[in-house]
Structures are given as structure tokens and as C-alpha cells.
Amino acid sequence: MAMNIKQAGERLDIQSGELEALVARSLDSFGGATLHRVLLLPPDHTRLNSMAGPITAMAYRILSGWGAQVDIMPALGTHVPMGVAELKMMFGDSIPLERFFPHNWRNEVVHLGVIPGALLREWSSGLVDYDVKVEVNKRLLAGYDLILSIGQVVPHEVVGMANYTKNILVGAGGADTINKSHFLGAVCNMEKALGHADTPVRRLFNYGVETFLGELPIRYILTVMERDNQAGRMKMRGFYAGTGNDLFEEACDLCRKVNVTLLDAPLRKVVVWLDAEEFRSTWLGNKAIYRSRMAIADKGELIILAPGLKEFGEDKEIDRLIRRYGYRGTPHTLRCVAENDELRNNLSAAAHLIHGSSEGRFSVTYCAGHLTREEIESVGYRHGDLNAMLARYNPAALADGFNQVGGEAIFFIRNPALGLWSYRGNFSG
Q: Do residue 252 and residue 274 come from a single domain?
């Protein structure tokens, strides 16, 4: 049986050479030179800071050297397939492009079984009771000797902590699994889940993988990353390779220590920067809301600087639904789900509408590079002029955290995907 391999610590800084040695040890533990066909499941470029790109390139180089055929299917979930420039940005130039295969969450999945509604009723304390189909990309059943899921453990609005079994059932999953798991998380209150390893959605993912994919040779490489603001770069604090929920929970424990910022008082004004290469839709960019909402005071203000923002949904149908129903709070969204089949049949979109609303508790001002005032205001946000806001809140001149700008106190977040910010009284764990 393969052994788990771990190297972790709050002050650790795993460098490239050490990382490649850890990857090689892990692959050797997973079968080494006996591996003939391997499928790698890394995230896409929206998880650029995970170090999954370099790890994937290292794994490809090592496995190919052993003579294995290596296929790579980025765990897109509902995201748009990666283009050539994005593949090279994430994974470098050493992997032939023909080794990459896009995941199609609507049309390339197989049905493996059903998680009964009775379990969801138990996990959600009676809030939902629907069955969930377990669907995954058919490539996972193509006879690989090893399926290696690669990714970062970081606070997540749907499941509590990203990665592990989520990378299988969402990243490589189908519509029913994605839709219903996201809605489960929304109705169970994301603020109770954020930063926690044991949540209703995590129970669903673990049950689905263990029950219906337990015979597949799935293994995991999980990273815990932290931005060192003084050094101006990301540092790898944890590397975990193997399988089992205990391994995942160890990574979550470290993640809480290095990726959760607890504040002694709620914040009146928060400014978030969304890098144009990473955030082009509110589907992704709303991490600015998810990850800061527990830090913002009642009647506070969130300003989002989003030069790359050009759409609402990554998927055309979801984009249409967001434009139609907007981010107007939980009661409005639940009413729309009850009254409209198109939203009831796209529950991940409904969940996103709930997640992306402040529920009227604080204001959200979006300063978008490629969406008009009319578009921004039509979905329920305030519109801000990007150039004017950038002139006032210049990301290059702001420090992460507290700043004074023209006598005004603000809190600046350079990349909301890297962690979770919360008033201490709003977070337990």
C-alpha cells in the first residue's frame, strides 16, 4: 500500500529542487516505474498560485522518463477550457500540447450512482433532501494505473476547504453533481462552512468518491501556500501526498494557520484587487465578496477593482441566468428557484447568486474593465469608474492590509483567492 508523504510547517519554504524530490518520492510510492498510463488532474490557470502547474510539469517529466504515457485533464469544473497561452502560463513549455484534454462538464460524463436524499437531509439538518447523481468525466474510467489529483487546500465558499475529493466530483464532475452540491452549500450558509474541513458538501464529496470511485487508483498531491508580503512571493508551507481524509484534514489545519486572517474589529471599507489574467468573470471574481464578507462591518463598503472583468458567468448559459436573476439575496433567489424551471435546473447558478449577494448588509461596488454601468447595476451591484478608482486606490502603492489613503482608512486585499479574512467574532475553528 502506498505511504503518505508529508512536509509541512508554518515557517517552511519548500523550494523547487526540494519540491521535485518530494514529487519523485510520491510518484515512486504510487507505483514508480510500474506505471504505464497516468492521468493528472491539476487545476486551471485560475489557481495559478497553487504551484500545481510546476508540480504537473515535474510529474510529467518524471513519469515520461519512466516510460509512462501521461495524459493531463485540467479540473475545470464549469470553467472555460484553457487556451494555448493559458496552458503555457500555467504548465510551462515542456509538456506537448496534445497531452492536454479539456473537461466538458455537460456532455462527457458518465453516471456512476446516486447519493440518496436521506443522507443530504441528515447532512443539511433537513434543509434539502434531493438525490444527487454522481457523474465524472469518462476519461477517469479509461483504465489508468494512476489518477493523480493535484491542487491547493485553501478556504472555499462552497465546500469549506478547497481540493481533495472536490477536485474529482466538481473539477472532473457533471452537471447534477456540481449543481446540487453548490446549492447544498448555499442553503447551509457559506459563512458556517468557510475555512472548515467538515461540512455538508465535503461529506457529499467524500461519500461519492469513496462509494462510487473507491476502486479507482486515485491519489492526491495537496499544497498549502502563503503569500509572503515582505518577500513579494508565494511560499509553499505544506506538501501532502497520498490519500485519506486524515491527510486532507492535516492540510486543512495548516491552511487555517497561514491562510485565515482574523481581525479584532469589523472593517468599514475594503478594497480588493482582481488580477486581469486570473479574474475575467464575476463567477470567479466574486471571491472578493466570499472571502472578505465575514470581515466587513454592517453598512460597510466593498470596492472591487477588476480590470479584466468582461462577463458574469464562465458558461454562456450561466452568464445568461446571472444577467436575468441578479445577485439580489437569498429570499429572492429561492423564490426564483421555486418559480422558474431554468434556474431550478441550474442550481449551481442559483447557489452562486446567493453567494455573490451581501444580503443587503454591506455595499458592493464593482469597477470593471469591460462591463458597462448598465450591466453592473442590472445584476444588483453598484458601478464604479475603474480609472478613477485606480487613481485613488493604486494597487502598486498599497500594502496588504491596513492603509491610509487621503486620510481615509481602508483594508486592501491583493488576491482574495489566497485566503479568508474575518472578524474574529464571526469565525469559529
A: no
Query: Both 288 and 411 in a single domain?
Result: yes
C-alpha cell at 172: 472532473
Same domain, 26 and 169: yes
**Distance separating alpha carbons of residues 148 and 316, to the nearest angstrom:** 30
Q: How many domains does the chain have?
A: 2
β-pairing, 132-137 vs 363-368, is: unpaired
Nearest to 366 by CA among 384, 347, 349: 384
What digits encode the pLDDT tens for the residues 139-195?
Answer: 999 999 999 999 999 999 999 999 999 999 999 999 999 999 999 999 999 999 999
CA distances 374 to 74, 87, 136, 270, 310, Å, are 35, 34, 38, 23, 13
344 neighbors 336 (Cβ within 8 angstroms): no
Secondary structure of residue 292 in the 3-state scheme: coil
Nearest Cα residue to 276 out of 322, 299, 307: 307
**Which cell numbers in the block locate residue 84?**
494555448
> Would you say the C-alpha torsion 330, 331, 334, 339 has a positive or negative sign?
negative
CB atoms within 10 A of CB 342: 14
CATH number assigned to the domain comprising residue 48? 3.40.50.11440
Q: Please state, in angstroms and rounded to a whole number, the distance separating the CA atoms of residues 118 and 131.
A: 8
Domain extent at residue 288: 264-426
420, amino acid identity? L
Residues 55-88 have pLDDT tens digits of 999 999 999 999 999 999 999 888 888 899 999 9
